[in-house]
Amino acid sequence: MNSGFCYIATWWDGLRIIDISNPSNPFEVGYYGVINIAQGVAVYPPYIFVTTGAAGIQIYQNLSAGIKEEQGKFFSTLSVLGRRGEVKVSLFLTEEKFLTLSLFDSNGRMIKNKCYGIVHSGKSSIFLDMNRLPFGLYFLLVKLREGGKEEIFMRKFIYLGD
Question: Which of 79, 118, 137, 138 is deepest in the core (most CB within 10 A)?
Fold first, then answer.
């Protein structure tokens, strides 16, 4: 257990990350399929080290640790468009920033990662291709960078499919 998360590595079922910040309602926030048989787990946030019988040590990253959903000055909306296979991300930036978007499924696996380069201040809209993705819960990680300073925000949404 570490920082409200419990890390479970099982022989046949991989590495599971459980959010136990509310002990009466624990829930799985991440899953990685571990190669071979997991034998031990060590955590140094946000990294998880898993030892296995044949593959040695494997290093994973808990992408849900330390990232909170923000309603701050950078987002105005995140909405699913009426058109099939697309999600519209609307941003309002107070100043010009370098933008990277990463999309994760409900198990914490990265589905897409794309750099959009410099986005100018004011309102901007970005469209994410969701074709061939099943309906369900997704997490959008937004990285905004200016100079050496990086801000990371997360939004969750339900995609209703095609």
Answer: 138
